[in-house]
Write a structure and sequence with these properties.
InterPro entries: NadB. The protein has about 525 residues and is an alpha+beta fold. It is about 25% helix and about 15% strand. It is globular and about 70 Å long.
């Protein structure tokens, strides 16, 4: 068995994990960062999802380092791509001109930028990254985790000892390994008092995950894939609460649940693109919705086709969760999700209705290069819901629901370590629930939500913080996950510097104020200006 030691171990290299590592490294600490794929970035890169953000993101509402990431992605395009003059001069360059975000970019570009951001610390020898490593065991000493053992691609276990261990895995995988108290799925209304919670807890009822893919369209060509073996099942699959077969262009409006037709016409003129989640989800035109390459952004003839990320409700996997099941069941669900995604592609190529009355778009072609894979599907599934720690503070729906809080705004937490904004956006679930999509107020991230009730040197650094199933719906998005991880990394480094433990910082008002002052100096925003939710 090989091994390493560091001040901070960050398990998981997604948005929260990278932000956590950078925060600790900026403060002079040594870090070991592990990641199950060969890309950093999680939902932004290996899961293939353009950033879901609030409409004020260009002005405020994120940490300085998250803004640096966004601008570095734009600078990558400005430096290396032949942009039109208009695009080159646009301060808010949106390479894909998608409606889901003001920064729709290729996953591979975001991965390259994140690799550049950590590069100096690799050169300095203060950061070690172990790709294709997943946690398999934890050394627990009372209320502390002394180390974690990982399984790597060469079959030899890799053991890391660290003063602080941060769980930034996509599913909260470290929590059961270390015996850290946690919850899964729906909590009950009796437990949380939440208006949208069920009467009884449903721990196996979780948001669907999705295996996304990238496509372009070459008119006059035929790139139809082989018919998937499970295509007949998925073609006819209709959840009881769905208005049509899942593989169709009719789906509920997430906010009203009314059956709503979508359009899908490659390269159809869409007019000016407005990426503003406060006006609507932006998902009515599926070609434009999550487009990450737009031909009009580049010099004429540079790219033959737009590139679109297929991350739509039609590929939300509902037959079962990835948490709380056997390894065999998990493998079956993962393969089922891939089959569903490929069935959706085959349906688009062969059966999707066209405006001319015909069916199918055989010119749709997978883009493996965009996703960094051999088959064009993302490196890993898009995970919306994780195990969640039992935390010193749990965020509940009525802390931030616009219907509950109204003009008062979200609850102001005295232990705030950042801010975020998104609707409470819960996709259909493995327990048979339709969308739960609730208007929310711009909210804060409480430090207590990062701290387990018992473990002394473990911090949540991603979607596994102290939210409920309901509030996970707005704390799971890109800039919020980044802020959560960045705060966790900063806290670990702060505690090492001052000889404190996280609970002491949380419980002592003076110590908390000193930490918050440090965060502010580092570019964290701890409170919102007066803006109304949506």
């Amino acid at each position: 068995m090989t091994g390493a030691e560091a001040d901070v171990l960050v398990v998981g290299g997604g948005m929260g994990g990278v932000a956590a590592a950078l925060a600790a490294l900026r403060r002079g600490r040594t870090v070991v960062l592990t990641e199950e794929t060969d890309w950093l970035g999680g939902q932004l890169t290996s899961q293939g999802v353009p950033p879901d953000e609030h409409p004020w993101i260009e002005q405020f509402g994120a940490t300085r380092s998250y803004r640096r990431l966004r601008e570095a992605i734009r600078d990558h395009y400005r430096t290396w791509y032949p942009l039109t003059r208009e695009s080159l001069e646009a301060p808010d360059l949106n390479p894909g001109r998608g409606t889901v975000s003001r920064l729709c970019c290729e996953p591979r570009v975001a991965a390259a930028v994140l690799a550049a951001m950590v590069g100096p610390y690799l050169a300095a020898g203060r950061l070690t990254i172990r790709y294709r490593h997943r946690p398999m065991a934890a050394d627990v000493d009372g209320d502390r985790v002394a180390g974690v053992t990982f399984a790597g691609p060469d079959g030899e276990p890799f053991h890391v000892r660290a003063a602080y261990v941060l769980d930034a895995t996509e599913l909260g995988d470290l929590l059961p390994l270390a015996g850290i108290e946690h919850v899964t799925g729906f909590e009950s209304a009796k437990e949380t008092g939440e208006p949208s919670a069920p009467a009884d807890a449903q721990p196996a009822n979780m948001q669907a995950f999705s295996w996304v893919f990238a496509v372009e369209h070459r008119a006059g060509e035929d790139h139809t894939i082989d018919r998937p073996g499970t295509y007949a099942f998925w073609r006819d699959y209709r959840p009881p609460f769905w208005p049509d077969r899942l593989l169709s262009l009719v789906a509920p409006d997430p906010r009203t649940l009314e059956p709503t037709p979508r359009t899908f016409v490659p390269h159809a003129s869409s007019g000016p693109v407005v990426a503003d989640q406060s006006r609507g989800p932006g998902d009515k035109d599926l070609w434009v919705f999550r487009r990450v390459v737009c031909r009009e952004v580049f010099e004429p003839g540079f790219v033959a086709s737009d590139v679109v990320i297929v991350n739509w409700p039609q590929i939300d996997y509902l037959p079962g969760p990835l948490i709380g099941v056997t390894d065999d069941e998990q493998a079956r669900h993962l393969q089922g999700s891939r089959d569903q995604a490929l069935s959706m592609l085959y349906w688009l190529q062969t059966e999707a209705p066209r405006p001319d009355g015909g069916t199918g778009w055989p010119g749709l072609r997978l883009r493996p290069d965009v996703m960094g894979t051999a088959d064009g599907l993302a490196k890993s599934p898009y995970i919306r819901e994780s195990r969640r720690i039992l935390a010193r503070r749990t965020v509940v729906e009525h802390d931030l629901s616009l219907a509950v809080r109204g003009e008062h705004g979200a609850v102001a937490y005295p232990d705030t370590v950042g801010i975020g904004m998104y609707r409470i956006d819960l996709h259909p679930s493995t327990g048979g629930d339709n969308y739960i999509d609730v208007a929310s107020c711009p909210f804060q991230i409480p430090l207590g939500a990062l701290l387990p009730v018992r473990a002394r040197n473990v911090l949540a650094a991603g979607k596994n913080l102290g939210t409920t199933h309901i509030t996970n719906g707005c704390y799971r998005l890109h800039p919020v996950e980044w802020n959560i991880g960045e705060a966790a990394g900063a806290l670990a480094a702060h505690c090492l510097r001052h000889g404190l433990e996280p609970a002491q910082v949380h419980e002592d008002p003076a110590a908390l104020e000193r930490f918050q002052t440090e965060l502010t100096a580092d570019g964290f925003e701890l409170a919102w200006p007066r803006v109304r939710g949506y």
